[in-house]
Structures are given as C-alpha cells and as structure tokens.
Design goal:
This protein is 79% helix and 0% strand. The chain has 276 residues and is an all-alpha fold. The protein has a single domain, classed as Orthogonal Bundle (MetI-like fold), CATH 1.10.3720. The protein is flat, with a radius of gyration of 25 Å.
C-alpha cells in the first residue's frame, strides 16, 4: 500500500519567471501601454509634423508643464465636480425609475418604452434644448449627464432584479424581509453584477458627454474644464497641449476603470463568488 501511495504523489511544478509575469494582468496591461506609447513616438517622428501629430515625448512635456502651472489640475477638478453631480443625479433618477418598474407592470412598460425612445438618442444632441430650458452653466451640463447615465443604469438594474431566482426571493420572505429591507438585503446583492455593469457602462457615456459638452459651454462662458482646455489650445495651435488634455482624459478613464471599478468588483461580486 505504501508503494502504491507513493506512485500517486502529486508534484507541484513551480512557475517560471515568465509564467509569473505573463499571469499578472497589471504587468500585461502596462506592457501594452508601453508598446502603444512606443508606436505613438515612432509614428510621430516618421510623420515629422508637430502641428498634426506631436510626439509622445512632446505630449508628456506639455502635460508636465500644464500640471506644474496648475492649469490641468484646475480644469480636471472642474470637470470631475460637474461629473460627480451629474452622475449622482443620474443614479438617483435611475433608482426611482427602477423601483417603479420593479413594483408594477406599468412601471416595467414605462421603463422599456422610455429606454427604447431615449437611450439611442445621443446625450450631446440634447445640449441645445438644455441650454434653452436650464440656461447656461453647470445645470445644462448636469442635464445631459443625467441622460447619459440614467438609461443604462436603470435598464441593467431592472434586468438584474428580474434575474433573481424565486428561491432566493422566498428565502427573504421567510426571514420576514419586505419593502426596502427586502430590496437592500436580497435584490441588490443578488443583482449587483448587473448593477455594476450598468455603472460601468454609464460612466464612460457621462465622461465623454461632459468633455464634448464643455467644448460648447467653453465658448458660451469663457471657462470650463478639460473640454474647454482642449478647445482653446486647438484655437491657439498648441497641439501638444491639445494632446496633453486628451491624455489627461485617457488617464482618468484608465484610473476609474482599472482602480475604482476593479476595487469595487474585487470586494463585491468576486468576494461573493459571483464572478471568477
């Protein structure tokens, strides 16, 4: 028996250095970013036209100068403040619409109908109406941001609620849960992967809508965030600064996606065993 057991010993093979590196998602993404930056630099040098396509080095130099002068931090803070207000307002209205759709059939029909009508409509197309209805200022920006966030979050949340199994619902009922407690302790945790998907879809919609809208509001008000920074530097033919502004937009997008949402996902759906 001892000899037979010895023949079935499982030997764990240690990972090689390359296998450890290739298995690290952060390192793989960093390597891809380095390759993209290298391609950018080589293509810009070959094109040799800084007014059309500055090099990556020139963009980094403009980016560093704008940070040192405080221009990009100031414009970024302005954009993020407006984004936070519009995103939060969009989530609030999405919660109300989803609650109504979950509670009644008419609410479900209303959500499906409104989503089919307004979700395909680009948020920036509502900007002229927002300027007429709300006036110039952050109110109009928040209006279009609500439209950008509302439909994807409401639709995904409602789909998540509908996917919760009847068994889990009955468990909640047996524990005496009802109303807001039933939603908070049963529906929301079970549907959270769908809710998180809606949040991840709504965020880039809102971010790019804000940058595009700031181009218009910069012209109207003479001030603004990153969108206006890009616009004014384009008019002054400071193309390296234009790329530095776009580079800032990209960096914020990478941070939100790979740090903020990745942390939320790791501490919720992965920790709960809902996702591998």
């Amino acid at each position: 028996m001892a000899e037979q057991a010895a023949t079935h010993v499982v030997v764990v093979k240690p990972l090689t250095a390359w296998e450890r590196i290739s298995g690290n998602s952060a390192l793989r993404k960093t390597a891809l970013l380095v390759l993209l930056a290298l391609f950018w630099e080589l293509y810009a040098r070959k094109l040799d036209n800084p007014l059309l396509f500055p090099t990556f080095g020139a963009t980094l130099e403009a980016f560093g100068s704008a940070i040192a002068s405080g221009v990009i931090p100031q414009r970024t803070l302005h954009s993020l403040q407006v984004l936070a207000q519009g995103y939060a307002a969009g989530l609030f209205f999405a919660a109300i619409l989803t609650a109504f759709a979950t509670a009644t059939r008419i609410g479900t029909d209303l959500l499906e109908l409104l989503t089919a009508m307004f979700n395909p409509l680009p948020s920036i197309a509502l900007l002229p109406l927002a300027m007429l209805w709300v006036g110039l200022g952050n109110g109009s920006l928040i209006f279009v941001l609500i439209h950008a966030v509302l439909w994807s979050v409401a639709l995904n949340t409602h789909a998540g609620f509908r996917s919760v199994s009847q068994t889990l619902r009955m468990v909640g009922r047996n524990y005496g849960l009802s109303g807001p407690r039933f939603v908070a302790q049963i529906l929301v945790p079970a549907a959270f992967p769908h809710i998180l998907t809606g949040l991840k879809i709504g965020w880039p919609f809102a971010w790019r809508t804000l940058i595009a809208a700031e181009l218009v509001f910069g012209v109207s008000q003479g001030s603004g965030g990153l969108g206006w920074y890009v616009f004014e530097n384009k008019n002054q033919l400071e193309i390296a600064n234009v790329f530095a502004g776009l580079f800032t937009v990209i960096l914020i997008g990478l941070f939100v996606e790979n740090v903020v949402f990745a942390t939320i996902e790791r501490r919720t759906v992965r920790r709960w065993g809902m996702q591998t």
